[in-house]
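Researcher: Let's try something more involved. This one mixes different molecule types, so please make sure each is placed in the same coordinate frame as the others.
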Amino acid sequence: MHEIKDPQRERRIFAARTIVSALVVLICFAVLIWRYGVLQLEKHTVYQTLSDKNRMQLQSVPPTRGLILDRNGHLLADNQPNFSLAIVRENVQDMDALLEMLKELVELEDDDIASFRKRLKQRRRPYEGVILRSRLTDEEIARVAVNKHRLKGVDVQAELIRSYPYGPLFAHAVGYVGRINERELARLDPADYDGTHYIGKTGIERRYEDLLHGEAGFQTVEKDARMHILRVLEKTPPRPGQDLRLTLDVRLQQVAEKALDGRRGAVVAIDPRNGEILALVSQPAFDPNWFVTGISTQRYSELRDSLDLPLFNRAARGRYPPGSTIKPIIALAGLDSGVVTPEYRIWDPGWYQLENDERFYRDWKAGGHGWVDFKSSIAESCDVYFYDLAFRLGVDRMSHYLSMFGFGRDMTADVIDASRGILPTREWKRAVRGRPWYPGDSLNMGIGQGFMVATPIQLAVATAVIANQGKWVVPHLLKQAGDTPWMPEEVPPPVDVKNPWTWSHVIGAMAEVMHGRHGTARRAARGAPYRMAGKTGTAQVVGIPQGEKYDADELAERLRDHALFVGFAPLENPQVAVAVVVENGGGGSTTAAPVARKLFDAVVLGAGDEPNDALADRGRP
Amino acid sequence: MSSRDFVHQLGGEHGLSSSRLSTRLHLDWLLLVSLALVCTSGLVVLYSGADGNMKLVWRQAAYMGLGTLSMVLLAQIEPATYRRWALPVYLGGVALLVATLFAGADAKGAQRWLQIPGVGVRLQPSEIMKIAVPMMVGAYLSRRPLPPSPKHLAGALLICLIPALLIFRQPDLGTAILIAASGLFVIFLAGLSWKWIAGFVALVATAAPLFWFYVMHDYQKQRVLTFLDPSKDPLGAGWNIIQSETAIGSGGLWGKGWLLGTQSHLDFLPESHTDFIIAVLAEEFGYVGVLALLAGYLLIIGRGLYMAATAQDTFCRVVAGALTLTFFVYVLVNMGMVSGLLPVVGVPLPLISYGGTSILTLLSAFGVIMSLHTHRRMLGY
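Model: All components are placed in one shared frame. Result:
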């Protein structure tokens, strides 16, 4: 140290600096006093309002989803109370630690946690709970309640969730609801779906989502320090969703399912008088209840990857070559356009040949049917007769008549995702296949093979139009929404024929299928106290699903022909029209026709067990 | 008028009115009473801010007891001892800070704690530095002629900045500022010329943009941006400020009453028992409550400054003064940030916010102040 310390001077400096500091302290305190004064006195009212806004919450009150009933009032979709574990993210400091803690209290699978984390990222209001697990057991609820103090941000929420008492029976027709996903969230009206966690994903649940959902209500609530609602200040009650009464009949649905006897296939039954779909069965199915609160990844991939395609709605989306089931319509086209007469006959040697074409078009009966006229051509399903007819009709006229019966179009009012099938035309072939239409294509089309594919619903609808002698009805599933009966928006024009007797010839030939000495389905009609009309069909299996592994036996089974049958009963005043497809069932007469017979009996004779379930008629008054 | 007379006028002669016991225990009754008042009201507010969690309140009270014990013990130590130990304690603290950077325990993305292996004790080295830094700067400067020469100024600045930068790297901007400030206060009180101060302010003004672009973390920038306009991000970073201002403003003159603050109890207010606890007090006890607390703080700060001014030598004066002013900065920064005057940096409200280490350090600092004030040589300097 070169300089010498001067204590007096240091003391003086310090005293001065202390005074400066004290002044600064005082000024700063004055600023704080001023600032808090501004907030607490001057702007008090503004902040009071803001604080009230925080305290009073506008909540939406979700509506109760409408029930779904069958035509006789049996519950197909019900709402059941459910307790789920919700987490308010904003109140959780350490999510991982909390989840670890919850794992000890309730059963939590990795799947639950994974989908919870996904939902956590979705857009939502602050302080809105995110569901971690549904369907808590009473014991789990108790365990959570006991540990409540350790579980900040965890909430047990009561809600109503969908339940399908008949399980797989209506999986495809009624469909199911599931949690709203990000994509749906983007297109939904947030005001209406605030507080609703489920939305119709397939079937009726999706088709009539707007009716079933109802309208959300709102309430302004005041909450106390523990977030409990103290009082409701203002309330607009929700408008509950409408109960839907369907045209489906549990009894018929069960009869059809039982008749299919576990085989892959589809059954559609329609009331030809009004278009009501009485049964819509696609086998195999799945339990829609699995999907409501979220299906596990493993179970879902089992369903998705199953060779039997249980998730696939065969009745509405299965595209099958219609085979001989379209012969009555081709025959009608022949009569109506004057290409054949009821008396016109051909000689069937077992094969047919076009001019300048070496190929043999064979009949299914190796030796041929001999002399075949209009009636026996349908009753015995003679292919050669229809090769000749198809050749002379040509593709344009065949397409025209088939189109009038609904092929190539989706005529249903409310069957979701119903396929249009393919109704080939010259233009279609050129556009899709890039080739002109050959006469041979017409021959194949005449017996329902080749390019044409149709769904079981389309086959049933066309059969209903035949039963009605050309009068159209719109096939639909909804009978009544709330108190409002379903009405068709527009009924397609009837199939007009030049001579009314054309119908009796066609229907008469179809009756011969069931009751004639050589009728292909005579065994299925045996012993019936009423008369019926029908047509069998057999569709060749063209390919098998790609990229799958089969063992030899299974391969052979899956390459067998599909069995088809269409028909209606009773003959004189038809009450039901049916289409049956049994995949790899072999011949239509042996496996498909007996299924239809059981449905005919159930409708005409009232056969079949009444649905015995405790759930029936539990709908709201 | 001698400086001694000035001091007489400011606060009255030491020992004249206080009891004999306090003299013997080297305590200052006025400071002790005002600290006790603030601490007690702190526990009351904490009970509400912690949503009635008695466990937190008991822990806080236990730390207050521990802090008082530490205060009493530290008050017994001679200032000369502090002066001798300033360097080793400072160096040890710096070493611990370095260790924390490399082996610290994570808490919310920042490494502030040092786990002592085998003992299960967690240490926050930055807390030690809150006392060690002003002590070291004081010890360094008080040996030199004052006001400090540029060379000694540089040395003193280095002493402040090394720990401040280490803490900033943790990252803990609030504590870094407080520690740098505590050292700078010593330099200021030691008589740094106004020219230097003006130059320093100018330097900070030019360095700020560089600091912004090259040094600050994104979340720290975010805090500053949010401070400038909280309404820009009302649900994100601006949420805290909007909610705390709402809590304070809705309290009004008389407040909503104890435990009745809706903002804090409905979880709208973040960190309601730690950094934002003043909002709970303002909401539940109103402007009146805020003024009362400010009066309590003013009493502590005023008494601290007086005790510094009447201490026996330069070392005692500058260290006691700097510790008092640091306490003042705590109050200013915390109450300023919660009310939207200053950007949000993690500074607790002294003696009120929940946090054992902070309480312990603050009360210890007052123990040091008492020691520096009450120990005096009987003869001159």
